[in-house]
Amino acid sequence: MKFLINGELIDKSDHFDVINPYNGELVDTVPIGYRSDADDAIESANNARRALNDLSAKEVSIKLFDACEELERESEDIAKLIVAEAGKPYKQAIVELQRSVETLQFAAEEAKRIYGESVPIDATGSVDARFFAFTKKVPLGVVGAITPFNYPVNLALHKIAPAIAAKNTVVMKPSMEAPLAALRLAEIINNHFPDGVINSVTGYGSEVGDAMVVSTGINKISFTGSVATGLFISSRSGMKKLTLELGGNDPLVVLEDADVEKAVSAATSGAFLFSGQVCIGVKRIILDNKIADEFIDLFAKEASKLKMGNPMDESTDIGPVINESAAIHIETAVNSAIEDGAELILGGNRKDCFYEPTILDNVNMTMDLVANETFGPVAPIIRVDGLDEAIKVANDTQYGLQAGVFTESIRSALRCANEIDAGSVLINKESTFRTDAMPFGGFKSSGMGKEGIKYAVEDMCKTKLIAFNCK
Ligand code: NAD
Questions:
Q1: What distance in angstroms lies between residue 250's CA and the mean position of ligand 1's atoms?
Q2: Angle at CA 142, nearest 5°, toward 175 and 468?
Q3: Fold entry, domain 3-246+446-469
Q4: What is the predicted pLDDT for the residue at 471?
C-alpha cells in the first residue's frame, strides 16, 4: 500500500514488509517515508486548512457521516486486513470496526455541537453594560496523530474524527507493525474531504514521528502508545498541545463478598482479549485470600476453554502476539516470575508468536511481570487480606489507566472508587471496557488528556474572546 499526501498516493524506493504473525507470510509492503515526507504532509495539511474552514459545521458533519457509511461498507475487508497484519482474532477485529463506525458517527454528531459562551465582561467596574463579549471555539490548525499497532483503526479515528469535526486538518502516522488498515482508513476519509485534510505517512517513529513532534507546522500531537515513547515525545514537542494515551497495568480487585462467577468471567475476557495486548487489559488480579482458591479453580477452568489458533477462523479466541520478540519478552517475564516464587496454574508455553493463556498465583509487586506492562496473555494473581491491602496493592504501580472492582458492598465499592488512583474505576466490571463517547484517559504514567469524542473535540479547539464596545 502507499501513503497519502494532498490526495495523492505516494510510493518510495524503500519499503517495509508487513508480516502476518500467524504464518510469517508477507501481507503487503509499505513505503518507508523520511522527514521530508512528513514535512510535505504537514505542508499539505496547512494548505488544506482554508478549504476545511470554509465548510459549514453541517457540511463537515455530512461528510463525516458519508465517510462513516463507506467505512461500514468496507468493514469486513478492513477487519480481515487487521487480522492479517496484527494477528487479531477476526471476531475481535470486526468488533473494532463496529466501534470505529460508531466513533465516526459520534464525531459527525459532535461537529454540530461546538459552542462558545457569552462572557459578562461588564462584571468589572471599568466598563458599562454596553460592552459585551463572547467566546468562539476555533480550530487549532493541524493535528498530528501517532498511533500504536493494537487498535489500528479505532485509535486512529479517536484522533482523526474529532480533529476534523473541529475543523483541524490531520497528519497521521500509523504503527509500522500494523499500518495497512490505518492507511485504508485515511483513503476513505480522503474520499469525502478536500485534498490535504487528511494525510498519512508511514515510516519509523524516530524519523517520521519525530519530524511531526518537532514541527512548528503542527499544533497538537495526539499520541497513543507506550510510556517510553510518550515521555520522549513530551520532551521534544515544544509549545504544542499534547494528548498522551499510554500504557496501563490495570488491576481487577476481587473482594471477599464478590460474586465470584461474574468476577471470573470478567477476568477471562479482560486478561486474554487480543492476547493481552490491550492497554486496558486486566494485568493484575488482586484476590482476597478468603475467595482466592475458589476463584482460581473456576478461572483455570474458564481460561482453558479459550481456543488458540488461526485468527482468521471465527471461533478463535487467542491468536499470535504481534511478533516473535514480543512473545519472547512475555516468556522471559513469566519464567523469571516463576523463578522468583510465582506458581504456574495454567499455560506458560510459547511456540513462535503464540503464547498460551497463562495464570500465575502468588505473584508479588516486585516481579517484573507486574511491575511493568507485560502486554501478553498472562493473568498474574496477587493475594491480599482485606480491602485496605487490596487498595494499597492496586495503587502500587506507576500506571493509573483504569481499574475494575468486584464487590457486593456499597461501602467497599465507594472506597475503591474514591481511593484507587486511575482514570476510571469500574464497579462489578473489568477494566477492559471502553465506550467511544466516554471520557477516557489515564492518571500517573498512563498519560495526560482525555479522549472520547466530546472531550477530544474540546481539546482540539482553542478559545477566542471577541468583545464589542457599543458605547
Ligand atoms: P509504541 O510506543 O512503540 O509506538 C506507538 C507509535 O509511536 C508508533 O506509530 C511508533 O512508530 C511511534 N513512535 C515510536 N517512536 C517515536 C518517536 N520517537 N517519535 C514519535 N513517534 C514515535 O507503542 P506500540 O508498541 O505500538 O503499542 C503498545 C503500547 O501502546 C502499550 O504500551 C499500550 O498500553 C499502549 N496503548 C495505550 C492505549 C491508551 O489508550 N492508553 C491504547 C492502546 C495502546
A1: 17
A2: 155
A3: Aldehyde Dehydrogenase; Chain A, domain 1 (3.40.605)
A4: 87
pLDDT digit string, tens, across residues 301-341: 999 999 999 999 999 999 999 999 999 999 999 999 999 99
**Per-residue cell: 210:** 519525530
Residue type, 24: G
> Atom 9, ligand 1: which residue's CA is nearest?
175
Catalytic residues: 245, 279
Chain segment 209-219, per-residue pLDDT in tens: 999 999 999 99
Q: Alpha helix (H) ranges present in 310-468?
A: 324-339, 368-371, 386-395, 410-419, 453-459
The closest residue, in CA terms, to atom 13 on ligand 1 is 205
State which CATH number among 3.40.50.1100, 3.40.50.20, 2.60.40.10, 3.40.309.10 fits the domain covering 251-435. Answer: 3.40.309.10
Helix 90-110 vs helix 75-86: angle between axes, to the nearest 10 degrees?
130
Backbone dihedral angles phi then psi of residue 201, each to the nearest 5 degrees: -140, 130
**What secondary structure does DSSP assign to 371-390, as a single string?**
HS---SSEEEEEEESHHHHH
Mean pLDDT value across residues 267-295: 98
Q: Which three cell numbers stand for residue 109?
A: 454528531
d(CA 226, ligand 1 centre) in Å = 4
Report the 10 Å Cβ neighbour count for 396. 17
Domain boundaries, the chain: 3-246+446-469, 251-435
Confidence of residue 125 (pLDDT cuts 50, 70, 90): confident
Please report the pLDDT score of residue 62 as a whole number: 98
Q: CA nearest 393: which of 245, 291, 288?
A: 288
DSSP one-letter string for 54-68: TS-HHHHHHHHHHHH
pTM over 0.90: yes
- Amino acid occupying residue 448: M
Residue 24 has pLDDT above 90, yes or no: yes
